[in-house]
Amino acid sequence: MGERMNMLRVGFVAVIGVAACGGSVVEEGSGGAGGTATSSTGAGATTTGTVGTGTTGTGAATTGSGGGTSTGPCPASPPTGTSCAGVPDQFQCTYGESVRPDCRTSSICDNGTWETAGGECIGPADCGSVEPGSQTVCTNMGDVCTYSESICYCGCGGGPACVSPIDWKCAAPPTTPGCPAIAPNDGTPCTAAGVECTYGTPCTPSNAVVNCTNGLWLWNRMIACAL
């Protein structure tokens, strides 16, 4: 099911990629709020999308890659209970600016309706004022602390075995050209086609691997981790 969902996400954003590459596309859907969002692009042209407005929110026109304007699948603000018609089932949109990806608000298209959960989370009380050095011993497995744009995780980093003592593993922002300092929100526009960005320590709760695919940042939720 997860593999099928991932293919649907890529297939959906491929439609947006058509407009970015010189074709034209008209999308009609919920507009994030029950209205109709329509966009059209051509080679070398910039066209402003018409945003549909409903009674419970407003759809948003966002800039995609290729110099045109396309309407992304994510509403401008977290939707709850509104229609996500035209969006693949289980497509996720995230909101917020937390350094920790797992602390963002998440909206998922579930059987035709947007369901929203999560939000900002409070760091553990034992986070020091200075980022701990590599392999500094920590005491509470699973604690996550942030320092500027770095994410530190107390534990084994998702490995197959955990041997005491556990320690801090800190991940600085990615240095790959085109990667933002903090994780871009899932489902938002991007211009760095094909770029992959990793945030946090792989296979930990605060990790995110994000790809720029057909003009949209997509969080990879298909990563296999050893148990």
How are the secondary structure elements laid out?
Layout lengths: L1 H19 L41 E2 L5 E2 L21 E4 L9 E6 L2 E6 L25 E4 L2 E6 L11 E5 L24 E4 L8 E6 L2 E4 L8
Antiparallel strand pairs: 1-2, 3-4, 4-5, 6-7, 7-8, 9-10, 10-11
Low-pLDDT segments: 1-8, 14-70
Biggest beta sheet attributes:
3 strands, antiparallel
* Helix content bin: under 10%
The SS-based structural class is mainly beta
Total number of strands: 11
Rounded to the nearest angstrom, the distance between the terminal CA atoms is: 20 Å
Strand order of the largest sheet: 3-4-5
Label the overall shape: globular
Please state roughly what percent of the residues sit in beta strands, choosing from under 5%, 5-15%, 15-25%, 25-35%, 35-45% or over 45%: 15-25%
Q: Quote the average pLDDT.
A: 73
Number of helices: 1
- Helices and strands, in order, run as HEEEEEEEEEEE
Report the radius of gyration as a whole number of Å: 19 Å
